[in-house]
Write a structure and sequence with these properties.
It is a single chain. By secondary structure, this protein is of the alpha+beta class. The chain folds into two domains: about 30 residues; about 110 residues, no CATH class. The protein is built from two helices and ten strands. About 25% of the residues are buried.
Amino acid sequence: MVSGRRLAVALTALVAVGIVIAVVIAKTKGTPHRATAPATVQTANSKLGEIIVNRTGLTLYLFDSDKRDKSVCVAACTRVWPPAIVSGKVTAGEGVRAALLTTIARGSGARQLVYNGHPLYTSSADTRRGDMNGEGFFGQWFAVSPRGTPVAKPGQKISRGYS
């Protein structure tokens, strides 16, 4: 027969394991740096014209505050704007210029997609193919054209930009 003390120790250990598992699951779900494989960038028609999207059809965005081939969106920023992290070979779909498609290393060592020098992101507000909920956010987040330039709503100005 199990003593009361042994039962209490076993239950405490079981609860501790459950808490650790719950924390790991919560952190995994919130991790913005999930690699997609295979990584294919393709074009799609949108309400603003032709844009580039990831392999699942989610809009790819650029952040106007980034520097050429360098992401400045880190920490909390990546929770709202997950970097387009890839592993393995990157493929340019029809209409995407393969010469403009590269990757850069983030601080974590993960590889982030870059198009025409712009590090690429998705928006946590986009959940379905064709969503563009991040477009024009604070005048700094824009969908990307197949030419590698920001796509803005008519009359909307891009804050700074770089080429």
